[in-house]
Amino acid sequence: MTDESFDAVVFDLGNVLIEWDRRNLFEKLIDDPDELQQFLDTVFTMDDNARLDSGTPLHEVASEVASRHPDKHDLVMAFAERWEETLGDVIEGSVEILRELSETRHDTGVRLIALSNWGKDTFAMIEANYPFFECFDAMVISGREGFVKPNREIFNIMCGRHDIRPSRSIFIDDSQANIDASNALGFDSLLFKNPEQLRTQLTERGLL
Prior knowledge:
By secondary structure, the protein is α/β, with parallel strands linked by helices. The protein has two domains: 8-17 and 91-204, Rossmann fold; 20-87. It has eleven helices and seven strands. The protein has helices at 23-29, 33-42, 46-53, 58-68, 73-81, 92-108, 120-126, 142-145, 152-162, 176-185, 195-204; strands at residues 8-11, 18-20, 87-90, 111-116, 138-141, 169-173, 188-191. Helix 4 packs antiparallel against helix 5 (73-81) and helix 6 (92-108) packs parallel to helix 11. The longest helix has 17 residues, at 92-108. The chain is elongated, with a radius of gyration of 18 Å.
């Protein structure tokens, strides 16, 4: 029986439902592990990737990084040309949980929302590739909104647009910073580590 205290479950996407890591691409292009790490730390950094998440187009970000590192031009531009190779496998256990929640939501009234830091154009590349996205009642993508987690503004956008009440909602994310932000807003926040732990946590809350 579903716990009536919850009426929404909010999922992050990257590394909760779909594996993602810049390394998935660049380890194909840079053989030396030390050189690879230096490239990720100092050339195409997570700060650069965050600009994608806030809505800057992929080719614009890559071109700017390449201009700063002309000796790495081809490697940097490969990120724009082969971005989809940064994605890993679907996390099947998590998708199974999502599908189970989706199958019962019409009876339970528990809505399913995606809230993800993801580039506007990169999400458009893959949105049609994952049938389980149809399980969501709504998807809030940072690159479309111009705000990224853990900025509370993107949570406010989601809550206002889709009538999400944090006190009656579960938020699932793999980032501690995002969990801290959601906790501050009153969500029941679950730090994702693996599907087995998530299943246990949702079962304890009466949702599975």
